[in-house]
Amino acid sequence: MHIDILTIFPEMFDNLFRHSIIKRAREKELVTICLHNFRDYATNKHKSVDDYPYGGGAGMVMMAEPIISCIEALTGKRSYDDVIYLSPDGELLTQHTANLLSLKQNLILLCGHYKGVDERVRESVITREISIGDYVLSGGELAAAVLVDAIIRLIPGVLGDETSALSDSFQDNLLSPPVYTRPYEFRGKTVPDILLSGHDKEIAQWRHEQSLERTRKRRPGLLDDQ
Fold it and tell me: In a 3-state reduction of DSSP, which class is residue 139?
């Protein structure tokens, strides 16, 4: 998979992509992540990428020209499955969306700032808009990092155990069951005996029942979608 991220703060990703699962995926050459500062595509002498909004009001708006010029430079070199704008009013990121995007080959992620991007960017080059939650961040960089992590961990070969991602919360619209490790007893609390029984089918059934119960208690709305 190839991911291009457009941002005016590429340095924000330096440490995020040098650790854990994303680092492993890059080292295995299962994913390539390229950062592009679209300020480099600004044509005025000050390299400005934002200006005051037409009609007045507080805040600044990111200009269309440098963003679209950057995207056009990239799309002139390869074909992209999606050009995604990280926006608080986009579709809510779900595990289902992450699953679908993990099957793509080439993605562009656009990180907005300030009051957002000129609407003409969204109308002309954006194919999908995604939000990581019903709240506003200072910019799209953190949202892009969340999206990248959610996608990359699903790519075959990235995780040590290929089945690990399949048991994550939300994969079946259910929360994950409780998990335990050593020691067997800790401060008076012990591991459920079923997990030590060695009966795979019974353990699987117990985990499914625990997932259902946890979902009913914590996120009952998920069951309505089944």
Answer: strand
Q: What is the per-residue pLDDT for 173?
A: 84
The token pair that represents 163 in the structure block: 């089945």
Which DSSP state fits 177? Answer: P
| Average pLDDT, rounded, for the chain | 93
Only one residue has tokens 């080292």, namely: 27
Q: Specify the pairing of strand 50-51 against strand 61-62.
A: antiparallel
3-state helix, strand, coil in the chain (%, to 5): 40, 20, 40
Q: CA angle, corner 17, sides to 87 and 72, nearest 5?
A: 50
- Residues 207 and 119: their CA atoms lie apart, in Å, by 47
User: Is 177:218 a contact under the CB 8 Å cutoff?
Assistant: no
The C-alpha atoms of residue 28 and residue 19 are separated, in whole angstroms, by 13
Nearest CA among 103, 13, 122 for reference residue 62 = 122
Q: Dig out the tokens for 73 from the structure.
A: 């430079």
pLDDT at 129 exceeding the cut of 80? yes
**Rama region for 81: left / alpha / beta (φ>0; ψ in -120 to 50; rest):** alpha
pTM here?
A: 0.89
Helices (H), 38-188: 64-75, 95-101, 119-124, 141-152
Domains located in the chain, CATH noted:
2-152 (3.40.1280.10), 169-224 (1.10.1270.20)
